[in-house]
Amino acid sequence: MTASPAHAPVILVAEDAPATRSNLTLLLRSEGYTVREAADGDAAAEALGDPGVAAALLDLKMPGRDGLAVLRAHADRLEEVPVVVVTAYGGSSAAIEAMRLGAYDYLTKPFDLDEVLLTVRRALTQRALVAQVQALSADPLADDPDPERDELVGRSPAMVAVFKAIGLVAPADEPVLILGESGTGKELVANAIHRNSPRAARPLVKVNCAALSPTLLESELFGHEKGAFTGAVARRRGRFEQAHGGTLFLDEVGELGLELQAKLLRVLQSGTFERVGGEETLTADARVVAATNRDLKARVAAGEFREDLYYRLDVVAVTLPPLRSRKDDVPLLAEYVVKQLARKHGWPGLALSPEAVVALGRREWPGNVRELRNALARAAILARGRVVRAEHLAGDDPATVPVPPVVVPPGAGALDLRAAVAEAERRVIRQALEQAGGNRTRAAELLGISRRQLFDKVRAYGLDR
């Protein structure tokens, strides 16, 4: 082990789990860093007040003050002391809130040790840059989501990147373009951006640009005067007026016609518009968040979407991954949806069998999270609010092949979902290895996961012995 030199940066490791804290300490010391440890939130808060601390690894869930409370208490020092949040929880609210509060980065457990070291190095680099900027400036001459609210859910790298992006763009009062296939959760991203923005106390107004004809959509967005058209029996305020001081979410913005695109561009550039049939110029004060599942660059090239409007909307883009590219999130998503369904319908016994979870993970989900949610709702009804089995999903997907049931030994007590799912996954991996003749690359292809994921799971389940 490399001894820490006297001038080595001091890294705070704030983690209540002794084994994790010890492993992180050993890792950092082996790289020459000096480590200071904290086992709870109060100790972490005290240590972050020490000017000698250069950076911190901060667990979100700790006794005393939690990680978010520690971040809030030291918000004024987070540029000088970059904090990397580490947690085992995949819910989006904590990730977004941590980034909004100023955390430098966000890692989920179990984390890759090389990634931890790389992130610490980057954090220290940022700290050095901040110190340089401050030196130049000193020149004397110059936390659980609301259970009733839908949330983005995931702990895959792709979703953690989405949470980070939301946390970074939410405070900025600029347009945001949300990209992603149908059903990936673009509206949830818009909700999260608004909820974490300075406009959160004002309205979030939503318009589906594909649901109305061009004439009706113009009236919907900008309002109309009495007598502007047949049926306009009174003046009506448009969505831009209703969203004053808040956020206007334009879903399926790629479906706008060219004439309306020009009027939207004018609002974004000048902040002014007129109601349909009106002469008075009105001022808009609404942040525009737009979403589309279309390839807007291709539409620009085809002359179907204004290039100037595209660049005006694409100040910051957040891209949502399709569910098929983050299959590791399917069990977590399924558990989240089932809990929602159980609460909504009063089904306390609603649960997923391990073979149902494995069956869900085998599907491609072209309709993404929306399709998963609908499939689980249908299966829950077929299961009469009890345990959803693979056969309850088979009618929804003809390609579903039932997985051999996990046998729970007599007297084993209540079925622990995570343990049962792990056992089912272990059996499926073993079958894939046998089918591939021990070739792990081929087994990974059969399972639809990366070689690295397979190696990690083989080691975790003791299948390499």
TrEMBL record:
<keyword id="KW-0804">Transcription</keyword>
<dbReference type="InterPro" id="IPR025944">
    <property type="entry name" value="Sigma_54_int_dom_CS"/>
</dbReference>
<dbReference type="InterPro" id="IPR025662">
    <property type="entry name" value="Sigma_54_int_dom_ATP-bd_1"/>
</dbReference>
<keyword id="KW-0547">Nucleotide-binding</keyword>
<dbReference type="InterPro" id="IPR025943">
    <property type="entry name" value="Sigma_54_int_dom_ATP-bd_2"/>
</dbReference>
<keyword id="KW-0805">Transcription regulation</keyword>
<feature type="domain" description="Response regulatory">
    <location>
        <begin position="10"/>
        <end position="124"/>
    </location>
</feature>
<dbReference type="Pfam" id="PF02954">
    <property type="entry name" value="HTH_8"/>
</dbReference>
<dbReference type="InterPro" id="IPR002078">
    <property type="entry name" value="Sigma_54_int"/>
</dbReference>
<dbReference type="Pfam" id="PF00158">
    <property type="entry name" value="Sigma54_activat"/>
</dbReference>
<feature type="modified residue" description="4-aspartylphosphate">
    <location>
        <position position="59"/>
    </location>
</feature>
<dbReference type="InterPro" id="IPR009057">
    <property type="entry name" value="Homeodomain-like_sf"/>
</dbReference>
<dbReference type="InterPro" id="IPR058031">
    <property type="entry name" value="AAA_lid_NorR"/>
</dbReference>
<protein>
    <recommendedName>
        <fullName>Response regulatory domain-containing protein</fullName>
    </recommendedName>
</protein>
<dbReference type="InterPro" id="IPR011006">
    <property type="entry name" value="CheY-like_superfamily"/>
</dbReference>
<keyword id="KW-0597">Phosphoprotein</keyword>
<dbReference type="InterPro" id="IPR002197">
    <property type="entry name" value="HTH_Fis"/>
</dbReference>
<dbReference type="GO" id="GO:0005524">
    <property type="term" value="F:ATP binding"/>
</dbReference>
<dbReference type="GO" id="GO:0006355">
    <property type="term" value="P:regulation of DNA-templated transcription"/>
</dbReference>
<keyword id="KW-0238">DNA-binding</keyword>
<dbReference type="Pfam" id="PF25601">
    <property type="entry name" value="AAA_lid_14"/>
</dbReference>
<dbReference type="InterPro" id="IPR027417">
    <property type="entry name" value="P-loop_NTPase"/>
</dbReference>
<dbReference type="GO" id="GO:0000160">
    <property type="term" value="P:phosphorelay signal transduction system"/>
</dbReference>
<feature type="domain" description="Sigma-54 factor interaction">
    <location>
        <begin position="152"/>
        <end position="381"/>
    </location>
</feature>
<dbReference type="Pfam" id="PF00072">
    <property type="entry name" value="Response_reg"/>
</dbReference>
<dbReference type="InterPro" id="IPR003593">
    <property type="entry name" value="AAA+_ATPase"/>
</dbReference>
<dbReference type="GO" id="GO:0043565">
    <property type="term" value="F:sequence-specific DNA binding"/>
</dbReference>
<keyword id="KW-0067">ATP-binding</keyword>
<dbReference type="InterPro" id="IPR001789">
    <property type="entry name" value="Sig_transdc_resp-reg_receiver"/>
</dbReference>
